[in-house]
Every structure is written in C-alpha cells, then in structure tokens.
Amino acid sequence: MDANSDGKLSVEEVEGPIKSDFSKIDADGDGFISKTELENAPKPNRQRPSGGK
C-alpha cells in the first residue's frame, strides 16, 4: 500500500475500511498511518455468513 515507499500511509494510499477509519487509526493525528498505528488499529468485526448448517 505504501506507494511512495516512505514508511507510512497517507489517506491517498489506502482503500476500503482503512480509508473510512483513517482518523481513528491515525492515533497521533499527523495525517499518516505508521506501521505501529496500523498494528494497533482495532480489528474490524467480521460476521460469518449464515450457511444454514
């Protein structure tokens, strides 16, 4: 995802749930997501599809 290889992610470099929760993940508010911030980000709640089993 780090298109410019600067070691951090900008809002322009991310997609999907990360983009929609960018401000939550960017804990220090510097406008970038560091590797540490990404590792500490809350994990999305994923629901299993009901398969009827």
TrEMBL record:
User: What Gene3D superfamilies has UniProt attached to this entry?
Assistant: EF-hand (1.10.238.10)
So which domain of life are we looking at?
Answer: Bacteria
Bilayer-crossing residues are none
A Pfam family assignment: EF-hand_5
What InterPro entries does this protein map onto? EF-hand-dom_pair (IPR011992), EF_Hand_1_Ca_BS (IPR018247), EF_hand_dom (IPR002048)
What SUPFAM superfamilies does UniProt report for this protein, alphabetically? Answer: EF-hand
Question: Where does this protein have compositionally biased stretches of type Basic and acidic residues?
Answer: 16-27
- Where in the numbering of this chain does the EF-hand domain appear? 13-48
Q: Could you tell me which residues belong to the region Disordered?
A: 1-53
Designated name of the protein: EF-hand domain-containing protein
Question: What is the native source organism of this protein?
Answer: Aquimarina addita
